[in-house]
Target: O-acetyl-ADP-ribose deacetylase
Amino acid sequence: MSNTQTKPILQKHLSTANDAGSENSVTLSVLQADITTLNVDAIVNAANSSLLGGGGVDGAIHRAAGPELLEYCRNLNGCATGEAKISPAFNLPSQYVIHTLGPVWHGGNDNEAALLASCYRNSLDLAVENDVSSIAFPAISTGVYGYPLEQATEVAIDTVEAYVQSCLENATNFSIREIIFCCFSATDAAVYKQLLELH
Ligand code: AR6
Model:
């Protein structure tokens, strides 16, 4: 990532020697930033099922990407909870937007954690399929959808770390080198920092 304006609050490196004997590594970073400003290959959007824009990070991404994003999204036929779809990023500095639909929090007994984990895995699958090297995630479901931040952060970090470790050990074409947890507020970033340090 070639951002100069935003310094990571924390970075953690995951690495594994693969079967070929060479070492691959992936950097996980916590940033406090507006995700629409990040110069990464892909940013993830916490969208709604229509994929036609909304409030929160979704609204910010559509505003910054411009009306072509909405036009493109009309042909994506929406998104189911836990799934993800990819589009170009139009006027954003990134190349792609990966749109995912997080679960609405209903108290924790409605499969929310598994669905949220699917958002992260399916987004990373699409990133790898599109040869993405750097990707930034917002705190999916923790705004309008009401998922408690600490619990959502646990799911985010667990899922991403497990995905990366498995790919570093097994995948032959694993393109990802940097994964950013992009927090809008300092409070959210402090929670991500604390939990990533504990992992
Ligand atoms: N950059 C990074 N993070 C942001 C930004 C930004 N520019 N703006 C907000 N956030 P939310 P959800 C953070 O509500 O809970 C939309 O209307 C925000 O502080 O955007 O998954 C959709 O259309 C919070 O930490 O997404 C859906 O209807 C995080 O992004 C619904 O909201 C997620 O908050 C989805 O709700």
